[in-house]
Amino acid sequence: MGKKQSKQESPQPLEESVAMNPERSEKGQLEVEEGRTSNQTKVSRSQGISREELIRTGNTTTWKVIRNILFIAMILSWVAMAAAAVYIIVTVPRCPDLAWWERNSVYQVYCRSYQDSGNDGIGDLKGIESRLEHLEEIGAKTLLLSNILQSNDEDLLFAVTDYMKIDSQLGSLDDLKDVLEIASTKDVNVVLDFIPNHSSEDHPWFKNSRAGNGTKYTDYYIWADGQSNLTAPNNWLNVFGDPAWTYEPMRNQWYYHTYTSKQPDLNLRNEDVQDQIKDALAFWLHVGVHGFLIKDASYLVEAEDLADEPVNPDYDGSTDEYNRLHHTKTMNQPESYDMIAIFKKLVNDISTPGRTRTMMAEAKGPLKAVVGYYGESKGSAADVLYNYQFLEHLEGDLSGTNINTLIDEWEFATQNASGIAIGTTSWVLSDMYNERVASRYGQKYVQALNALIFTLNGVPFTYYGQEIGMESSDVESNGIGVYDPAQPQGNNTVPVNRIGQITPMQWTAEANAGFSNTSNTWLPINPNFETINVEVQKDDATSVLSTYAQMAKLRDSSPSMLAGKPRDILTTDAIYAFRRQYPDWPGYFIAINLSDEDVTEDYNALDSSLPAGGTLIFSSRGDGEGTVKFNNLVIRPAETIIVQF
Known about the structure:
Strand order of the largest sheet: 11-10-9-5-2-1-13-12
Structural class: alpha/beta
Number of strands: 21
Oligomer: single chain
């Protein structure tokens, strides 16, 4: 028999239950609603105060006060920050707004003589790359590479055979790119010197032109008929004082050359030639160089009429034969200024924001003619002019009076009617064409003069080796550029005074001065390399190298040195003293003693606006420091000092 199971009732649907028992419905609904409210309250309390409670609390007086205080504090903090920003902008001294070529000092390197990396005795671009750290150590920020284009440089004529190639003895295009890349990591800009005035006689353009075959190259150079094959077209002289014309039998004409017959002048009146030169400039800018020093700007274009130049009635034969004529037809013609402006426009067009390029120029002649290469306004032509005036006219008269005269003449010539400089000057003490500073003035003046050019208003140029006091060499030339006194200088392979300035850089006291691993260097090394070299001077605070680096870095970090307006205080044959100060920055008193004795002066009596004293922050002797009084200031022989006030 089965176990009897109780029957379980199925739950009734809510609607049916409510319909059957309305009273239950109302009671149940109330219970449900109360249950929901109870549950919600439990949930809210488990999570925090309710929204209603939060609103009630936030509207109390206490919290309103707290909110207002926080809001006011936030506003006041913003006002304080804005006020601080305004205060900083208004009161903190502003730095001068200078382009990199105005700020940087320039270090000129003759590539063949700087560092040999290939053990062939010839310096090269890889060698320069390996020595870029030296530039960083001495504070040089612009590297000027001289004569690296393909040329017949073995005879030192610097005559280009290809404007778009690196000289194969010096390296390759990739080597130059490596130099540019490494230099950029050291904040060094690279500038090339560039010679558009003439090419080599071995350039394909001249080979075609001298053939006279009616091609486009026929007028790429300056050709003229003479009275015969023995009589030149006119009386023009080259810079060596020899006839400036050479007869070419293939054309039965004469060609003009500012320098030797191996360096024919290009015809820059020819637009095809202009385009070729501009293409070359653009090529190197796109490779990555930061600009150019255009050499021989004064000689770019000659007078079209080819008339004789007037004889100089004051010429007495005591100077170069070149001075026998007034060079009114071959120097500083109006079209030469136009060419510099044309080249500068190309440089400007290729410049981009954050990567501006520069164009410097090298010109000779009367000062008024030279400064014309700055152009009509700043930036329209040369940014910087190579100051031959200072380089050449300081020699023979190393005095405070002469230094002041040369500075004043240049600054006056470069100002417009409003007294504003239209370009940047440079201060040059030596180069490959002029005897080195140590040889010209003596070792005792090297440090004082190096320091001086870093304190003047403009860009200091340093020729490699100047930073250690290298001297011009009298060594034999190994047969390179041998001078034959029986021949006119214009027909020789090299001017007689050039070899002594381009001997290899002296790095160490070891064999070959650290320049090369071979003793068969392209030019002999100066025998004094064991005592005059970078390595021996590095750790000597009083050395030429150490004081050079100190001065370069002081200039680079000081707005007053970079852009302070100079004001003369004292000028005598023994002393040149002046001050520089940029608004709201510390000022500097600078003085050089060019005599052989101590000189004591009361500079307060000479300049009443000077303070009673200041801090001696630099001596070219490397031992200056401490506080000094301007009313009894002693400057030692061959010393440049800088006092900050």
